[in-house]
Write a structure and sequence with these properties.
This protein is of the alpha+beta class and about 325 residues long. It has a single domain, classed as Jelly Rolls, CATH 2.60.120.10. About 15% of the residues lie in helices and about 30% in strands. The protein contains five helices and 22 strands. The strands form five sheets. Strands 1-19-16-21-14-13 form a six-stranded antiparallel β-sheet. It has a six-stranded antiparallel β-sheet with strand order 2-3-10-5-8-12. A five-stranded antiparallel β-sheet has the order 7-6-9-4-11, with no helix packed on it. It is globular, with a radius of gyration of 22 Å.
Length: about 325
Amino acid sequence: MATQAQDAFHKAMAAANCSPLWERYDLTTNRPPPSGHIWHWQTMEPLIEQAIQATNMENAERRVLTLDNPHLAGTGTEGAALNLSVNLQVLMPGEKARPHRHIMNALRFALEGDGAVTIVNGKVCPMLRGDMILTPGMTWHSHEHPGKERAIWIDALDVPIHAFLGIRVFEPGPAHNMPELPPDSAFSAVGFTPATEFDQNYSPIFRYPYDQAVKALAAMAEAADGSRRLRYTNPLTGGPAMVSLDCFLLGIEKDRETMARRSTSNTVCVVVEGEGTTTISDEKMSWRPNDVISCPHGAWISHRASSDKAVMFEITDRDILSRLGLLKDEFRS
């Protein structure tokens, strides 16, 4: 039972807007690694259809299903993984989403569609399955769909980082003050870039086509476990295509488990091709195309393909941690 002196001490601290650290939590005990989570396409697709029936661009503007990781509930953060907000967005034929911009960095990874485009600072970027489109912070972007079939894509943003820092900014259109950008054709030859200045901290290429990505992936040297991995890069720096969202394409050989890795970084994987399983700590998750897997920091993670060809698109916060000097990777066979 608290003594009268202790009660007086607590009242005095409360009046001074401070509190005793020793009563709050134990800083000497490591927390167990977070659990992984998977959103199966067979579960999400019916919800997408219901979202289409329930909304239009007038009453929703952004027809988006946010992927909420249940293991983050009560932690004070939101998203599919720590530092990563991942969503499913739908655009129907004839629809448009008006121009806007925000300080958060974002990317789009197309799952299906026959003609939808994202327009980024005036550049028209077609969205075919597997294409990755950048919409870096404070770039104007909009979506249009002149095709005949629904268009669905993954939205990934660094919203949790900006929310933590308290610097979220949103600005509706119309677009204005757009910078002049070099055409993508100026970067079409490996090893050559324009000699003009581009002082932004993101790639001047906004669209990374999947057909080119898989060709480049096939040309990568195999790792010891048979996997191949490529990074989506900024051709001017060789670094990540966009700060805070570092992206990779992973090819997995059939019946060969990737080397288990544990990292301080978080990853969200989108299954593009094939079937298989992912092991997170001691839990196995089976996956198929369009499934989304949250792979948390601090857990041992490996993948195994059961089909002849398996490809995953990886979204990570590795660049943030690297810049802070906090990125650490461990491997075990």
